[in-house]
Amino acid sequence: MARIYPKQLPKHVFDNPKLSSEVRVYERIRDKLPSDFTCYYSRSWHEADDHGAEFDGEADFIVAHAEYGLLFLEVKGGRVSCREADGQWLTEDRDGFKFKIKSPIAQARSSKYHFLKRLNENKRLGRRFLRVRHGAILPNSARPKRPLAPDAPLEIIAFGDDLENLDKWILRRMTEGGDPREKPLGLDGLRALEELLASHFELRAHVGFSLADDATTIERLTGEQAWILDSLEDNREMAISGGAGSGKTVLAIEKAIRCAAEGRRTLLTCFNAPLANHLHDVCQGNELLVVASFHSLCRSLAIKEGIVLPSNAGQALFDTHLPEALVEAIGNNPNLGFDTILVDEGQDFRDSWLNALRLAVRDIDEGRFYVFYDDNQRLFSPEDGFISALPKSSIALTRNLRNTKRIHELMSKWYEGRRSTAAGPEGEVIGLLECRKSEMAMERVNERIAQLLRSGQAKPGQIAVLTGSGSTSMAAPEKIAGVPTCQSDKIHPDHIVFDTVRRFKGLSRPCVFLVGIEELTDSELIYVATSRANVLLEMAGTPEDIARMMQNTVDIH
């Protein structure tokens, strides 16, 4: 049995009565030729000449053998004839209808010259003088007694009489006659032919289209969450949990804006300064809405009330002195308090800080206090007593709306809280940029980003490069792929963000590249790192570090 491409004919070929003759020939070649023969069915081609004229064609069958060379065959069904007046070839079906057809000999000859030219362009073969033949098969026509045309002698055409022994006819056609200069196709020729006619390829997706389509889907899904805010109307205090990408921050922003619009003095706060800057930019234009990181809020109110803070308190300044200054400032001037307080990324707060914030609510009976938190993350505070004591939202945020399914699959491997499901688009596969040494990771990322920018697939403002190291002071490049960089608390729309995973916590970008992954050893930090990308996530590092980060995730390249 010959090796044949495709191994099975598609259903649409079997179902097309016009291709029934080709199906018969396919089955005869497959079943009768020995295994050292290879056959390709229905191979289309295209070429242009030096003047710009374009030509298309198709080889019905290409038979190849390492020793005997190549045979190009064209199949014409029905009863074939040729008009004497103009040399037009015709075929007549069983119902007596005639159709114009191209000369099968001319078609086979054109395919032969095209593919021979393509093979001669293969440097591995050189300009080998290959043994190549062409011919035609007319399975519904009986063999005549004279040649059909000057270019169609009977010996290069197989008729219905020859089908039963088609293997012998093909062998005879490939071996009879020839030029002494002809060389065998060889095993290297067979490989070159397979690459030309049957090689598999998989193109890298154009990220630009994915970014646009997936971002639109994610934006729509996130907007659908707003109805959950109605469930908060009758609850003065509540803890709302959800994993990364579940829309916690979007809900916190929307609730804060609504409360301010109702005439309530509202505070939206978080631990992370870069996230607070982002929230401030989003919420501009609301006079009754104050947006600030927790410690900057404490400091600003302390200054307003003239409270002196210790100058050399170290970490105690943040852990104790600033929160206490907040309580003192509001105690001295209740007008500095708030009607509604919303805490985003509440898992980062110490219990004492949350207690200080609750004391900033002006009216205990009418005030509102909401904490949005991720029950998997405890990067900055191991405490959870305060949040645990709050009434829990009856509606858990269990759908990941921000990330694609492929990103969700990876980040979920590092998630230990309440499980969520991916509602976003399928997305791009996780990009793996392997390098021999971790020090080369930034170079690989630079090359990849340059390619995305050069091809117009991404814009600088869509990209963030995050490092697993604790500080960017020594490693932060001024430019990446020729584009200026910025940190996450000073984001510029035309710059590429370069920052640590910790500082970028709570933020996201359509495209995120991870470097310094050898320092990402804590599962919660890996969870944060892998969940920052909305659409495209790629990581650079040694094969060992990448394998550890991927945790055997499938469908990667």
TrEMBL record:
GO terms for molecular function: ATP binding; DNA binding; DNA helicase activity. Residues 21-121 form the NERD domain. It holds the Pfam family NERD. Coiled coil: none annotated. PANTHER family: UVRD / RECB / PCRA DNA HELICASE FAMILY MEMBER. This is PhoH-like protein.
